[in-house]
Specification:
Structural class: alpha+beta
CATH superfamily of the largest domain: ATP-grasp fold, B domain
Shape: elongated
Organism: Bacillus safensis
CATH architecture of the largest domain: 2-Layer Sandwich
CATH topology of the largest domain: D-amino Acid Aminotransferase, Chain A, domain 1
Strand content: 25-35%
Largest sheet: 8 strands, mixed
Protein name: Endospore coat-associated protein YheD
Number of domains: 4
Pfam families: ATPgrasp_YheCD (PF14398)
Helix content: 25-40%
CATH class of the largest domain: Alpha Beta
Radius of gyration: 25 Å
Length: 452
């Protein structure tokens, strides 16, 4: 039941015929073809000498609802030739316009373009796109500089790119997810946003990862004051971070002074307070304290007198194993407390930050080893199919590595850097490879009763 990679293309002069490489004569008889939820049968088989090309007569090609011509992985199970993966990129927030996802449209154009460079097929869809009675989807493709709607099968794998937690928690999306994963047995990967405190707790209980975590406490209404006082006494500088925050929004830096504290934010403001209690009273006017984590401040490596940390992106490969696909430095902007680009941070390649090759390779090896270990532990302890993680890692003045954040839906802004385009390509490849792995795993462990 090994997968084989082939070009899937239409054959224009035949009818009800699949044209297979001659080595398929030695394999199990094929009675049907499947792509995602779509199945066709009642065809003839002919053989040709090209070892890596499968040609389908136009009626079969149309009947399978193949989105576009591409290489794909094929596998024969129970006399059915499965073609794939067919990846459905699931999201919400669709609009009736030439930019169907509003300001996020450009992100999805790049994502679809990236996937199209690798074997398999991908399209964009949401809850509203599915015709449950027919078992088909009105999927979105991007072709020749325009969005195209096309009738497509339900996917063999779903890649979750919901925009925010509010969308993920909606009743319609929850029910769509339940039906696709439970009734149709479709693997759904990156199924939820990470909660910072939950991830911290899981990593803290594993001997391989606890040492990478800054001293952190979850605040609560009862003893938030005493927790902050203790942490600030121990570390002089601490950060308050929203447990469900992103992009550096809502983060505060608290610095202990002789006569109180100074609080910094990403808006470039520093406000003195006579006491921690005074600051907490101000914070409670806009936020619930239990929505925050208090975390030890780390004295990071600097470049040009600005602190920097590192984004390390990990993805599973075609064997389901973790690999590093990107690593870059993020440098904080003037008068900001984090390195996020939305708040003035800049992205630099490791080459720019560590011009000496030996040092650069040493740092890359340390960051990669740490990110792989963290990925493996998170994967083991969290539920669902996790296929990619974006880590924010720091290196302090002694060379120790710290993990500040793990994101299941990390942004792709850093890949706008011209020197990181290859990483964007590699991430696209890994996602399609992992989708192929999940698809094969699902096929070999289910009775694929939901193929139409």
């Amino acid at each position: 039941m090994n997968r084989k990679r082939c070009i899937i293309a239409p054959h224009l002069t035949s009818e009800k015929t699949i044209h297979l490489p001659v080595h398929y004569k030695q394999k199990d008889a094929i009675y049907s073809l499947a792509l995602g939820s779509r199945l066709v049968d009642g065809f003839n088989i002919s053989y040709h000498q090209h070892p890596n090309k499968i040609l389908l007569s136009e009626d079969l090609y149309r009947g399978l609802l193949i989105p576009y011509q591409s290489k794909a992985d094929v596998i024969i199970i129970d006399h059915t030739l499965f073609i794939g993966p067919l990846v459905g990129i699931f999201t919400a927030g669709f609009e009736q316009s030439t930019q169907p996802l509003g300001t996020r449209s450009e992100f999805f154009i790049k994502l679809l373009h990236s996937f199209r460079q690798h074997p398999g097929f991908a399209y964009l869809f949401g809850s509203h796109s599915i015709d449950w009675e027919k078992g088909i989807v009105e999927g979105l493709l991007y072709h020749e500089d325009s969005w195209v709607k096309k009738q497509l099968p339900l996917p063999s794998v779903i890649y979750d790119r919901l925009p925010n937690r509010k969308a993920a928690q909606s009743a319609l999306i929850q029910e769509t997810k339940r039906k696709l994963t439970q009734d149709y047995d479709i693997p759904w990967f990156n199924p939820y946003f990470f909660n910072k405190w939950e991830i911290h707790e899981q990593l803290l209980t594993d001997e391989k990862t606890w040492s990478f975590l800054p001293h952190s406490v979850q605040l609560d209404p009862v003893d938030a004051l005493s927790k902050i006082e203790t942490l600030l006494h121990l570390h002089q500088v601490i950060y308050l971070k929203p447990t469900n925050g992103s992009h550096g929004d809502g983060i505060y830096q608290l610095k202990k002074e002789n006569d109180g504290i100074t609080v910094f934010s990403n808006f470039g403001r520093s406000i003195p307070y006579d006491s921690i209690d005074q600051f907490l009273q101000r914070l409670r006017k806009d936020h619930a304290t239990h929505d925050f984590i208090a975390q030890q401040g780390i004295e990071l490596l600097q470049i040009d007198n600005q602190p920097m940390d590192f984004r390390v992106h990990t993805n599973k490969n075609k064997e389901g194993d973790w690999t590093v696909t990107a690593a870059a430095a993020k440098v904080s902007g003037d008068h900001t407390i984090t390195t996020h680009q939305l708040h003035g941070g800049t992205v630099k390649t490791l080459y720019a930050v560590f011009p000496e090759e030996k040092k650069r390779l040493q740092i890359l090896q340390q960051l990669s080893h740490t990110a792989i270990m963290l990925s493996q532990v998170i994967d083991k302890k969290m539920t669902g199919h996790i296929g990619e993680i974006g880590f924010d890692l720091g290196i302090d003045q002694t060379g120790a590595i710290w993990m500040f954040e793990a994101n299941s839906r990390s942004g792709r802004e850093i890949f706008q850097h011209v020197s990181l385009k290859k990483s964007e390509w590699l991430i696209g490849k890994r996602i399609m490879d992992y989708a192929s792995y999940l698809s094969k795993t699902a096929l070999t462990t289910s009775d694929h009763a939901n193929v139409y």
